[in-house]
Amino acid sequence: MTDGHVVRDADVEYESVDAAEGLSKGVLLGPDVTPTLSLRRFELAAGATVPEHTNEIEHEQYVLDGEYVVGIDTEEYTVSAGDSVHIPAGAVHWYRNEGDEAGAFICAVPNGDDTIELL
What we know:
This protein has no helices and eleven strands. The chain is mainly β. The strands form two sheets. Strands 1-2-3-10-5-8 form a six-stranded antiparallel sheet, with no helix packed on it. A five-stranded antiparallel sheet has the order 7-6-9-4-11, with no helix packed on it. The N and C termini lie far apart (about 45 Å).
């Protein structure tokens, strides 16, 4: 017997993220399905920026499309499809898409308090 679950791409609803214009989020697998972590897909529009912020929980990300800059603490990294990113809990981070194409990434986070604090 299995407790597996499949979410179809067509069933994922995307919503704008209040903290950043040009960023949208779809929850692929959330706490209603899995007790330990959530899997989300983000889309970062061309020209969009996400301001410096911190989160209470760590983030693991896998870049699907595009090329954009991820800032983590005092470092900036240009990432593109196939790259993986680890953002420790509490680390100051931000995003900047200077390109003409949207970027997209998968983000896995432990379930729990994901309080975002804008800086």
